[in-house]
Amino acid sequence: xxxxxxxxxxxxxxxxxxxxxxxxxxxxxxxxxxxxxxxxxxxxxxxxxxxxxxxxxxxxxxxxxxxxxxxxxxxxxxxxxxxxxxxxxxxxxxxxxxxxxxxxxxxxxxxxxxxxxxxxxxxxxxxxxxxxxxxxxxxxxxxxxxxxxxxxxxx
Length: 155
Known about the structure:
By secondary structure, this protein is mainly alpha-helical. It has eight helices and no strands. The chain has helices at residues 2-17, 21-34, 39-52, 56-69, 74-87, 91-104, 110-126, 130-148. It is globular. The termini are far apart.
């Protein structure tokens, strides 16, 4: 049931943090058998495939399904989809997708937004638009600098 799916999902998340992508793929697949309507699981497994640079067509299908399952997570899923498209050699589609992602990601998540701008810069570069790639990298640097200036709270 979905409760056990959550445990497998947590195992997958932990394996990703440890960069154990084969282990995370196994855990996310198991979680999906128990909770097949969970869009985040589809997206996470797609991201694992991106990290391994394999099963990219399946990754595309997974993140496309995630977009249908949880439309509210569209900005996050578009980042994954954009990177999948880039790895599939579809640079212009990746640019369009990643532009929508950076335009719609919440501004209160500068780390995720900075990562998305890095992906957008990669897509622009692959599409041959170096000035736009440089602009995206500058935006990423600004976000990272702003994040570093955040006060550190002491317990």
